[in-house]
Amino acid sequence: MADKYRIAIVGAGPGGVSAAGRAAAEGVPHVLLESAPHIANTIFRYQKGKHVMAEPAALPLRSAMRFAAGKRETILDAWAEDLRRLSANIRYNAEVASISGKQGNFKLKLKNGETVATENVVLAIGLQGNPRKLGIDGDDHVTVQYTLDDPEVYQGRNIAVIGAGDAAIENALALAK
In the structure, how many helices (H) and strands (E) does the chain have? Predict the structure, then answer.
């Protein structure tokens, strides 16, 4: 049987890395399970150089992780460094398929067939893996993208940005440069 953790944290975004940082700093047996091959997949998929906001001022920060506004790359580097410094137990490419049990005795089944035993579960999952699609024929065509990593890759090309939300406006402005 695998080790039993006191806390299993599902998702390595801001909330998940914060929880893992706190658990590591306090010496609590934990595991941070991230389905992607890196931390903070939503922020990782932001366009290069994008400004990332800090934590809300109204919430007291209880983590040993650094949370400050800055460029995407700076934030991700700081979090990765903090996780290493604190010796956080993180597993990448560890997508959780199901959770069963009750407090004190949970079993998390991973998509690769492994099982993780834990007393407590922190769900820190986001929505990046479920983009809102166009809902029309061709919305999965190879030329259609739902994220913009590096606007410079598209210099001199004709691009249509669909939507009027924050992400669409930010993408259109980045592409217009």
Answer: 4, 8
- In order along its 177 residues, the chain shows pLDDT tens digits of 467 999 999 998 888 888 999 999 999 999 999 998 888 777 777 777 777 776 555 556 667 777 778 888 888 888 899 999 999 999 999 999 999 999 999 999 999 999 999 999 999 887 655 667 788 898 888 888 877 778 888 888 888 888 776 677 777 888 887
Judge contact between 145 and 168, C-beta under 8 A.
no
What is the value of pTM for the model shown?
A: 0.70
Identify whether the C-beta of residue 115 lies closer than 8 Å to the C-beta of residue 2.
yes
What element of type H or E holds 173?
A: helix 166-176
Closest by CA position to 15, among listed 123, 91, 120: 123
